[in-house]
Amino acid sequence: MTFTTILFYAFIAVVVIQLIYYTSFLFSFAIKRSETRLKKQMPISVIICAKNEAKNIEKNLPNILNQDYSNFQIVLVNDSSSDNTLDIMEAFASTNPNIKIVDVKSNEAFWGNKKYALTLGIKASSHDFLVFTDADCIPASNKWLMQMSAHFSNKKSIVLGYGAYAKKKYSFLNKIIRYETVLTALQYFSYAKLGLPYMGVGRNMAYRKELFFNNCGFNNHMTIKSGDDDLFINEVANSSNTALCFSKESFTISEAKPSFGAWILQKRRHISTARLYKYKHQFLLGLFYGSQLLFWTLSISLLLLNFSWQWIAALTGFRFIIQWLTFGLTAKKFGETDLILLTPLLELFLITTQLSIFIANMISKPKHWK
């Protein structure tokens, strides 16, 4: 058996693995329709942790205050900001009695640790049902709280939502960021549908205060600067306590990072937490990424070695058809249809970028959340 034949058999195995993943994603989430639920509006506390976010608080907080919801509190956590974030918060609080401010002072033991600030905000909240978002996010509609809270029940104590990024014309970086966001959402929604929830995004998620304290909050990973959203969900979520909310009215929208450097730093923080996921999640996520990387590496290598291009084209084409179908239905669900035709290019760029981030994180770890 020649070397190229061995590579070809390996390529077949990789394509099969990719097809299993994408068909699982297709039938577990991509073709599913969002459920619209209307329930009695329970009291909700919205937690927003901000560090040097004066402009975003001033611009975005009115969108939270204008939610069509009868009983909600906003807990604004000022995490030792050096700008006038606290002043802006106090100005809003002076005219809105449903706002509570938690001013977190610098603490040597927890300096630069968002989890410490969030914990103080959660403790200060008045209600058991908590919804989380970031200072740079706005709800896609005034039904955001109504949609997210409707998925709570006696059994469901976690609600995972979708945090989109605003579109920017003529920006390849913006497309990369939105592609990665859709792909990540496709995975964490699909895994949750399959009974294996493993993460959520702090831009749009909810859980019960009781769940937080019954599981000792962030204690098990307090020294890790990132992971206030995904590590906590990875630790406490299971097939019976997790609900999904992906109606368009429930989305939040953020401004994407303006430069590759800022985005890379953000992704370095996010990726650094994956090594602390449960082993089954590490294996499944690692196998998916590894098979993506090998798909491109082996297909290009076989073509360079002049292996039968017809076989490579057939296998590659079939894999792309299933991927396009799965990603396309998901992108349509999230209003990101402009990304569909660019999927192969965006995928290749993202894979190589993630590989460089893995290598960089092995050399040095990002130290602060902002």
Automatic annotation (TrEMBL):
Record's keyword annotation contains Disulfide bond: no
Keywords per UniProt: Glycosyltransferase, Membrane, Transferase, Transmembrane, Transmembrane helix
Domain of life: Bacteria
Membrane-spanning parts: 6-31, 283-303, 309-327, 339-363
UniProt xrefs under InterPro entries: Glyco_trans_2-like, Nucleotide-diphossugar_trans
Glycosyltransferase 2-like domain location: 45-211
Family (UniProt): Belongs to the glycosyltransferase 2 family.
Name of the protein this chain belongs to: Glycosyltransferase
